[in-house]
From TrEMBL:
NCBIfam families: HTH_metalloreg. Residues 1-89 form the HTH arsR-type domain. It comes from Pseudoduganella namucuonensis. One of its GO terms (molecular function) is DNA-binding transcription factor activity. This is Transcriptional regulator, ArsR family. Keywords: DNA-binding, Transcription, Transcription regulation.
Length: 108
C-alpha cells in the first residue's frame, strides 16, 4: 500500500462518502450509483482508485462485483474514525448499517 495512493484516494469527497457507506456492508456498483446519484462508470472509476490504494476489494458474483472495505487496513481504521466526526459521514454510516441489518434479517 502506497501512502501517496491512499492520500490521493482520500482527497476526493465522493470517495470518502463511498468509504463511509461501505463501512457496514458490501455493495455493488449499481447500488452505489443509485445511492449517490452518479453514473455507474463514475462510481467504477472511484472504486478503481480506492481499490488501487488498497482501501476496498471487489468480489465478482454473477454479473456484479461487490465491494467492501479491506479488512485490517490502518488507513480504513483512521478514515472510519474521521468519518464518525464528519457531519456527512456519520449519517452515511448509519444508513449503511441499516442496510446491513436488513440484509442479515433477510438471510435468516
Amino acid at each position: 500500500m502506497s501512502l501517496d495512493k491512499v492520500f490521493e484516494a482520500l482527497a476526493s469527497a465522493p470517495r470518502r462518502k463511498i468509504l463511509a457507506y461501505l463501512g457496514q456492508t458490501e455493495m455493488n456498483t449499481s447500488e452505489l450509483a443509485e445511492r449517490f446519484g452518479m453514473s455507474a462508470p463514475a462510481i467504477s472509476r472511484h472504486l478503481s482508485v480506492l481499490e488501487n490504494a488498497g482501501l476496498v476489494s471487489g468480489e465478482r458474483r454473477g454479473q456484479f462485483v461487490y465491494y467492501k472495505l479491506t479488512a485490517d487496513n490502518v488507513a480504513n481504521t483512521l478514515t472510519s474514525y474521521a468519518l464518525e466526526l464528519c457531519p456527512e459521514g456519520r449519517p452515511l454510516k448509519r444508513e449503511s448499517a441499516a442496510i446491513a441489518a436488513k440484509r442479515r434479517a433477510g438471510k435468516t
